[in-house]
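User: Could you go from structure to sequence for me? I need the amino acid at each position, not a summary. Structure tokens:
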């Protein structure tokens, strides 16, 4: 799912793209980037020893409509001009200048390859290069139900005036407390998978 909150109408208008409409080409056609971008899909990061691609920005990315055809090696797809895979390298070419927050609601979107003296190369760096002020991303394979719950709480708090950092922290603490009651423990797997980088406000 691609969810775009326009600058002028953050609380009233959002462009939603589901299923066949959720293609990578939507992201590359922006004339005026939205204030918030929410991407709910599948993320991937391939280790260097898994494939022949040496550029770490080609080994991390997001899957959109049509990705299954590409992954299965089907040369004839309904999405001729869109392979359904958005690599971190392709993200660096997007126009996100003015976008306050990109939420990557997918597994392992915060990981990448650490290069000595250079930092981590992956989706986080790519979205920052593209101009996003803040990125909300996951550090491991996140559970669907808890992630959905976290996102609802996060946006409710954010659109009620909380800073991005406080909205995330308070939402995670709520789920932590509830998991202790429901499951008898507060394992971080259920609530601590997301981190925020960039501007916390």
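Assistant: Here is the amino acid at each position, in order:
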């Amino acid at each position: 799912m691609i969810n775009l909150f326009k600058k002028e109408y953050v609380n009233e208008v959002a462009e939603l793209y589901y299923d066949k409409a959720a293609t990578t080409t939507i992201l590359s056609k922006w004339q005026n980037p939205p204030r918030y971008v929410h991407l709910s899909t599948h993320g991937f990061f391939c280790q260097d020893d898994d494939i022949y691609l040496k550029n770490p920005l080609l080994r991390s990315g997001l899957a959109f409509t049509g990705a299954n055809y590409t992954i299965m090696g089907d040369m004839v797809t309904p999405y001729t001009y869109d392979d359904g895979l958005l690599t971190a390298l392709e993200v660096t070419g997007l126009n996100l200048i003015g976008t306050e927050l990109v939420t990557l609601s997918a597994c392992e979107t915060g990981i990448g390859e650490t290069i000595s003296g250079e930092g981590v190369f992956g989706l986080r760096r790519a979205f920052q290069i593209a101009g996003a002020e803040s990125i909300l991303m996951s550090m491991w394979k996140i559970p669907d139900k808890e992630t959905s719950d976290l996102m609802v709480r996060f946006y409710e708090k954010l659109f009620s005036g909380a800073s991005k950092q406080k909205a995330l922290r308070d939402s995670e603490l709520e789920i932590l407390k509830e998991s202790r009651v429901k499951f008898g423990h507060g394992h971080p797997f259920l609530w601590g998978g997301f981190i925020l980088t960039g501007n916390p406000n």
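One structural detail worth keeping in mind: The longest helix spans residues 164-183.
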